[in-house]
């Protein structure tokens, strides 16, 4: 079911992004919200697997709020504060990841007094579906009233950045972010040594398109591996520790809480200093370590259960760090390669946006690649888990993540030519 939803996202995300470039972020976002509301309505009365699948198909084809939120934030932020702003999306995800499932489980255990509503037959989970519908309607009303259109708007550059630009430092700083590394610091150091700070060279359109392709591939491969781990983790705890839903929920919830705290504290502040590429690589390395620990859990439990639980919890901390860093960093990195539009500072003319670098389309394609990974990863991980066992599955995944982390070295140290 989850793979179907992600596969539909893979198909539709680029088109949603392109439409938002043409017709505006707000208009397309409201249309996708209508689709989500329709999905909830079908879910309320779905009393068969086919009707429930229909609701998920409608929802998968309508899910555009995440990528459009990222595009909106990219419209109104500068290169210097882009990563910090996008971290709020990850924080919101982590918080909802913690509180959403318990709320749904609570209301699912309290069915409506009457399981029919007029001519509609309600399913046993109609209460959480109704709650979802109410929240979606409220969100849609809020967006209509409060959300401005951001397409084509240019972020206000803070006075401090304008001053830096006057001194010749801004290009080094902005390109430091665009390159996902510490170019800014290097440019500033060179400037102090020579008495001036020459602008750092910028990426050409071809270089940015090539880099976006690399980032899409990394996004696909990372989420393919990571989502497989997420999907099979509860299999591991049930098979080896005989944990119930409450214990599994506590484990998953703790990962979400730690991830939210890391994003709100460490990641939001550190990414602008370390660079998006380096932060993504750190997260991938942490994931590889977590997978190694998970691979050690099955052989450890036969000798010492306490050690096996400790390994599991240590792996969960690694997964939380990974969840807080990699996707956020790659998304910010991809966003910084998109065209800003606006006025060229050198010529005073309006810059023409490259169609492949328009934020909506470029970020839609980026998200699409990740959703394809989410569609394929769980299927492969489950097949491996039940065929070869958890130890081999996590060991193979750890090796793949190590290779991926090594590949990320290219974007962590990339320099424009």
TrEMBL record:
Keywords: Membrane, Transmembrane, Transmembrane helix, Transport. GO terms for cellular component: membrane. It is a multi-pass membrane protein. Residues 167-182 have a biased composition (Low complexity). The chain crosses the membrane at residues 28-46, 85-108, 128-147, 218-238, 250-267, 385-405. GO terms for molecular function: transmembrane transporter activity. Residues 156-200 are annotated as: Disordered. PROSITE patterns: MFS (PS50850). Pfam families: MFS_1 (PF07690). Residues 1-417 form the Major facilitator superfamily (MFS) profile domain. It is found in: Membrane. Signal peptide: none annotated. PANTHER family: MAJOR FACILITATOR SUPERFAMILY DOMAIN-CONTAINING PROTEIN 10. This is Major facilitator superfamily (MFS) profile domain-containing protein.
């Amino acid at each position: 079911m989850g793979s179907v939803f992600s596969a539909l996202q893979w198909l539709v995300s680029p088109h949603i992004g392109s439409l938002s470039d043409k017709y505006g972020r707000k208009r397309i976002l409201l249309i996708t919200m209508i689709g989500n509301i329709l999905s909830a309505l079908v879910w309320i009365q779905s009393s068969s697997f086919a009707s429930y699948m229909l609701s998920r198909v409608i929802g998968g084809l309508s899910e555009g709020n995440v990528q459009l939120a990222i595009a909106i934030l990219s419209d109104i932020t500068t290169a210097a504060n882009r990563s910090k702003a996008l971290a709020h999306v990850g924080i919101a995800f982590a918080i909802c990841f913690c509180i959403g499932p318990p709320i749904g489980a609570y209301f699912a255990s309290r069915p409506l007094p009457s399981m029919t509503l007029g001519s509609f037959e309600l399913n046993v989970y109609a209460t959480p579906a109704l709650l979802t519908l109410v929240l979606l309607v409220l969100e849609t009303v809020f967006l209509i009233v409060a959300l401005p259109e951001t397409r084509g708007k240019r972020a206000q550059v803070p006075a401090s950045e304008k001053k830096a630009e006057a001194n010749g430092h801004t290009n080094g700083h902005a390109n430091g972010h665009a390159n996902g590394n510490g170019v800014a610091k290097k440019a500033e150091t060179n400037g102090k040594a020579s008495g001036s700070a020459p602008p750092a060279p910028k990426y050409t359109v071809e270089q940015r398109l090539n880099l976006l392709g690399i980032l899409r591939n990394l996004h696909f491969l990372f989420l393919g591996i990571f989502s497989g781990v997420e999907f099979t983790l509860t299999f591991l705890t049930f098979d080896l520790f005989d944990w119930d839903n409450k214990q599994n929920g506590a484990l998953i919830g703790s990962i979400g809480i730690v991830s939210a705290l890391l994003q709100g504290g460490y990641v939001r502040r550190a990414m602008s200093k370390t660079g998006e590429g380096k932060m993504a690589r750190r997260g991938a390395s942490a994931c590889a370590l977590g997978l190694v620990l998970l691979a050690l859990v099955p052989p450890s439990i036969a000798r010492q259960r306490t050690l096996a639980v400790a390994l599991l919890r240590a792996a969960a901390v690694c997964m939380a760090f990974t969840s807080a860093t990699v996707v956020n960093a790659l998304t910010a990195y991809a966003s910084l390669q998109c065209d800003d539009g606006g006025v060229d500072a050198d010529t005073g003319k309006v810059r023409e946006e490259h169609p492949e670098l328009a934020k909506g389309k470029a970020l839609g394609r980026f998200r699409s690649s990740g959703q394809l990974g989410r569609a394929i990863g769980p299927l492969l991980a489950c097949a491996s888990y039940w065929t070869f066992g958890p130890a081999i599955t996590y060991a193979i995944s750890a090796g793949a993540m190590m290779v991926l982390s090594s590949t990320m070295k290219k974007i962590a140290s990339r320099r424009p030519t």
